[in-house]
Amino acid sequence: MDRQKEAVDVRRNKFPVAEYTAAGALISLFSIFLGFYASAITFAAQSYPELNVSVINEIHRRIISNLILTSAVATPLIAGLFYLLARRYQALTGGKGE
Q: What are all long-range contacts of 24-30, with beta carbons under 8 Å and residues at least 24 apart?
């Protein structure tokens, strides 16, 4: 019984690099989406009254296209950055994250 308890304790003391990497990347992606949304709302509030429907549809298409491209490029870069930061933190704390 003590062996099983020790095994559980050892697993919990390790620093979860993958979890921190995933959390950092997801939070950063949320920030990107929020930024695109805020810029679209700001643009819409100031420019849509003067534009016609075809121009508005083209703007929406380009915004979505740019958002997909930005996410595809930024996700690996952000995940790599958070992975390096988490590994460095793990090395500094001896793998325990304390």
A: 24/78, 24/79, 24/81, 24/82, 24/85, 24/86, 25/75, 25/78, 25/79, 25/82, 28/74, 28/78, 28/82, 29/71, 29/74, 29/75, 29/78
Angle at 33 between CA 30 and CA 37, to 5 degrees: 135
- Break the chain down into helix, strand, coil percent, rounded to 5: 90, 0, 10
Prediction pTM value: 0.66
Radius of gyration of the chain measured on its C-alpha atoms: 22
Q: What is the pLDDT of residues 40-97, one digit of tens each?
A: 888 877 887 788 878 878 888 888 888 889 889 999 999 999 999 999 988 888 877 6
